[in-house]
Amino acid sequence: MSAGVTSRPTGAATPVGSPAGRSVLEIAGLCVSVRGEDGEREVVSDLSLTLKRGETLCIAGESGSGKSMTALAIMQLLPQPAARISSGMIQLGEIDLATLNERQMQRIRGDRIAMIFQEPMTSLNPVLSIGRQLTESIEAHTNLSSAEARRRAIEALTAVRISEAESRLKQFPHELSGGMRQRVMIAMALALKPDVLIADEPTTALDVTVQGEVLELLRDLQREHGTSVILITHDMGVVAEMADRVIVMRHGRMVEEGKVADIFARPQADYTRELLAAVPRIGAGVGRRKSAEAERPGSVAVLNDLHVHFDLRGGFFGQVNRRVHAVEGVSFSIAPHETLALVGESGCGKSTTAKALAGLVPYQGDIVIGGRNLAGLGRDERKAVRRDVQMIFQDPYASLDPRMRVGDLVAEPLLIHGIASKQERRERVATLFERVGLSADQMELYPHEFSGGQRQRICIARALALRPKLIIADESVSALDVSVQARVLDLLKELQREFGIAYLFISHDMAVVENISDRVAVMYLGQIVEMGTRDQVFSNPRHPYTKRLIEAVPVPDPAKRRPRFARLDQEIPSSARKIGETPSKLVLQDLGNGHLVAVS
Predict the structure, then answer these.
(1) I need a labelling partner for 268 at 20 to 30 A (CA). Which of 166, 197, 324, 338 fits?
(2) Whole-model pTM?
(3) Under DSSP, is residue 242 helix (H, G, I), strand (E, B) or coil?
(4) How far apart are CA 325 and CA 361, in angstroms?
(5) Three-state DSSP class for residue 326
(6) Residue 79 is inside which H or E element, if any?
(7) Can you give 6-27 as a three-state secondary structure string?
(8) Tens digit of pLDDT for each residue in 393-426?
(9) In angstroms, rounded to a whole number, what is the distance separating the alpha carbons of residues 239 and 229?
């Protein structure tokens, strides 16, 4: 066993006043290899970096660049036996982590180096309470009693701004929101005050306001404890917001390294310039002219006083005792050739609204498509009208049957509606593949043989198969890398110009929304709080919630870094209410030229 393993008292805090510029972690010549069907290949090649005490180092790059594999190598958590460190040194203080066995690493993890993973729900044990998971981690690395470990756990939860910390110890992960679960993960990582904190895409799955709060929280905790942070992300706005230094990776290799201001102002590598050019920016879409076609009279779809409720059962007899008011009186219309963006945080009702429009959930109110109210139609008539509305989902892999060839998946809507002969369907699918930037030869492949961006293009081709008038894009680019996202958005715009499609574009990313939308509707707790043209909403937001959403977007420019992001004192209220208790109906006031804002 290395003598360095016990050189630091277990659980001891890193002094905030440690000498600036001193290295806490050094990596030299790191190579990580993965064994597959074609033999062994390197996924991280000859990587060297230095992390100074109290510094935030961002590792940026797209999927497959080797960012996460680097983090797993540091933590000695590479998937075994497929992956291994083939060469290199990982020096944490006086210890070379690459030489330690699993028993020795268990003493290092959590105590001196900790990690926050991207998806908190899969990182937390669903059958153990939050308190048990926190206290077990503390007890494993300290000599504290159960009562002292519990007190330390409460302090950690309080430090990450979780209200009623003591009562939260009894809760299970599924009882907390995504933002709360991520804060619990941060509390677990920081409970032992590690020297190094690795945060692997810690905000990717979070809403933009929760992301702002989590980033501000990391900064606060870093200032208080002097922790060094390695932040792994593909979001260049987050990089600009948080980094002191930046490493840009591609295909397992470092392509550029430097101070954050230099990387953004004077990028040297072509790939870095491409990455920065693809980032959507607030303000870039303001003033963009609305297409003349989108000004045409008439509507592709009209929603009038839409309500969607879900009953919840509880109690000893499992009776209905609460009701989720997911959508509460939503009304809007979408014109031909127009893109209406529906924005808001998780749980606001935007996806439920889309599912009601697509006929996937029961609803109350009126949905009129192509001048026909769905409420008065029979089954066959509804099926015919539904051809005009198609949907692109957030996760392209989950929405494609892995057992079917992609050509058959794109042809399936034509088959269901009995359109064209087998040969005509194949020809149409081949044309669609070419239209979305794929080749007809790829029709015989399976979903797993494509990248994420290519799979989303397949989903777009499938949505186009029936030549719909309206496509619902539900978070259709949120899971994609920034450059792939930019290409998919350009494709959607191009298809709209060519086929005259209207879009209902659902997203929580305000920068993306501003760059693609003609009109914007902002939802909060099942109701629309503001609606207007893109310029009205982004240049002159009037509702406090809209302002908060826009302010939460990190600006991809270190010179415009926010001094602080104001955190909410409590979680967003729930849309679930007792039976008979209904939410107050918001009244939208027209401020002029169709700019509608909710008034109290």
Answers:
(1) 197
(2) 0.79
(3) helix
(4) 13
(5) strand
(6) none
(7) HCCCCCCCCCCCCCCCCEEEEE
(8) 877 778 899 999 999 999 999 998 888 888 999 9
(9) 12
